[in-house]
Amino acid sequence: MGGDSRYLGLAYVAPYVAGLLIFTAIPFVASFYLSFTDYNLMRSPQWSGLDNYTQLFTRDRTFRKSLSVTLLYVFMTVPLKLVFALFIAYILNYRLKFINFFRTAYYVPSILGGSIAVAVLWRYIFADSGLVNMAITAFGGEPVNWFGDPSNALFTITLLRLWQFGSAMVIFLAALQSIDKTLYEAAAIDGAGKWHTFVYITLPLITPVIFFNLIMQMVQAFQEFNGPYVITEGGPLKSTYLLPLYIYEEAFKKFDMGYASAIAWVLFAIIMVLTLIAFWSSRHWVYYAGDKRS
Amino acid sequence: MAEQITVRTTPELESARTLAEGRRMHAISSAVRYALLAGVGFLMLYPLVWLIGASFKTNTEIFANPGFIPSEPTLNGYIQGWKTSTPYTFATFFWNTFLIILPKTIGTAISCAAVAYGFARFEFPGKRILFATLIATLLLPNVVTRIPQYLLFRDLGWLDTFLPLWVPSAFAGDAFFVFMLIQFLRAIPRDMEEAARVDGANTLQTLIYIVVPMLAPALISVCLFQFMWTMNDFLGPLIYLSSVDKYPVSLALKLSIDTTEAFQWNRILAMSVLALVPALTVFFLAQKYFIEGISTGGVKG
After folding, report:
1. Where would I find the ABC transmembrane type-1 domain in this sequence (chain B) (predicted)?
2. Does the beta carbon of A143 lie under 8 angstroms from any beta carbon of chain B?
């Protein structure tokens, strides 16, 4: 505003700038430095060059296992969750009665989110004689060994996060509701079927929120900790031992801060590369209304 | 004549037929939709409903009865679970959670409102770069800053206190909230603020008396989300708190899984129900703020 010092705005954002430096920027740089050191809290960090990274990529079998489990988890959970959230949002977007009721019902599991109580619940309902197996046997199926079998355990965590599709769905639903109805009418006059309308009108118009949800869900999935830590404790046979669990144990159980920082940086690099790929590719598939490029 | 009549009626009949068919198709497809939505809704809510029922069941019934209603309802799980196997009861753990949530929520609301005001209403050197860092922090995975943060708090002597859990938030550390408030402020016209300035109010007075009341709905969303997230936060307390008397509910629940004797399932389930009650109550009392908050933060961004 006129007459004010041009630095006045800085006074208001000062807390953010201070917080950014102290709690984000400096730790960010420090963690990069630590990843090249040997640091166990007993003595000051000792520079060890690329040792941590060579160790990780050539000798550490736990890391290899953990990395592949993490990638599997993310590539399984994120697409399933987005497709499911979009599907339900699409159905809810019809002028149905009780839409608010359903929206609330679907959103409740998300609000409880990473709560430990929900992870506890999951332990119980997927136990050998838990609710899920009781339901399966009631319908004449064979009970499933959800947590004991390494090939099922990770999927149980995925199911927990799929159950929390609500927040992605609310975002999709808001985007679907903002689409101009006349576009649908025009498509109907031109004789377009539902599928064509969805693929050629609906999908392109909501690509910005698909993009947003994709990035958010991916960053979140790569950092999944509570689910595997409480439900399966990383097992069996490390089949749910996601990288954040490994980092936690190296850093806060073994206090091997240098090595843990190196793992964190590998995880960060993967997230960064995938995010950059998403941003880079977005110019080819994300449509912004009023943008001449598309 | 007769021919004329047939010519005239046939299309009408046909259109009446297609209309009826269309209606029937519509009825079928909306029935399918409702069935699907109800089915998914059941899968969403039944685990929670079952949890509530199971917390009143005896330990033998929990893994034998898939239904909701306990055959011999008992409060045993609640009474024994509340006491825990530690010298403390869940009253301590709920109180600790409250002691973390209160400063964190207040600190978040004040700092984020001020910072959002600065970004949305002022031009200053370095604004574009700072705004870019805000977006970058939004995407920055916490995992990469966590270890040095721990070392910092250790050097400050803050380990095993609540400070590491809320102080960063009081510095507008949750970029998501700042971003949400900026979006909200940008949509509000500046007329009122300009009128206040003309009347001689300084920017701080304008912020407090004009902007904050207009921001109120968004600020409520911010507080509610922060409440939920803090209630659910597990990794933070796990890293920073080591004495049991400082544990919040999330950590105490994990502790009770590890320490409760085997076969005492209903204690853990009962305490899980209690852990979910505050979040659920707040959500149902104020759900419109949640849905609006998530839609503004997400879509307009």
Report:
1. 94-286
2. no
Higher pLDDT: B11 or B100? It is B100
Q: Residue B2 has what pLDDT?
A: 43
Q: How many CB atoms lie within 10 A of CB B90?
A: 21
Report the mean per-residue pLDDT for chain A. Answer: 89
Band (pLDDT 50/70/90 cuts) for residue B115 is very high
Å between A237 CA and nearest CA of chain B: 20
Helix (H) or strand (E) holding A46: strand A46-47
Task: Give the mean pLDDT of A68-93.
Answer: 94
- The DSSP symbol for A146 reads T
Nearest CA in chain A to B191: A1
Q: Where are the alpha helices (DSSP H) in A164-202?
A: 166-177, 181-189, 194-197
A130 falls in which pLDDT band (50, 70, 90)? confident
d(CA A29, CA A174): 38
SS3 content of chain A, % helix, strand, coil (to 5): 70, 0, 25
Q: In whole angstroms, what is the distance from residue A198 CA to residue A90 CA?
A: 9
B-proximal residues of A, 149-168, CB under 8 Å: 163, 166-167
**Ranges of each domain in chain B:** 1-50, 87-299
Which A residues in the span 13-32 are in contact with B, Cβ-Cβ below 8 Å?
A: 13, 15-20, 22-24, 26-28, 30-31
Burial letters for A193-204: b for 16+ Cβ neighbours within 10 Å, e otherwise?
Answer: eeeebeeebbee
Q: What ipTM score was computed for the predicted complex, to two decimals?
A: 0.89
Neighbouring-strand partners of residue A46: A38
How is residue B24 written in tokens? 């029937």
Q: Is A104 on the interface with B (CB under 8 A)?
A: yes
pLDDT digits (tens, 9 = 90+) for B140-172: 889 999 999 999 999 999 999 999 999 999 999
Q: Residue A207 half-sphere exposure, CB side, CA atoms within 13 Å?
A: 17
Which sign, positive or negative, has the C-alpha torsion A206, A207, A208, A213? positive
Q: Does the structure show a pLDDT above 60 at A54?
A: yes
CATH of domain A59-285: 1.10.3720.10
Architecture of domain B87-299: Orthogonal Bundle (1.10)
| φ/ψ (deg, to 5) at A75 | -75, -15
Could you tell me if A276 lies within 8 Å of chain B, comparing CB atoms?
no
Nearest to A117 by CA among B141, B70, B162, B280: B280
Q: With contact defined as beta carbons under 8 Å apart, do B228 and A114 qualify?
A: no
Residues ≥6 apart with Cβ < 8 Å to A3: none
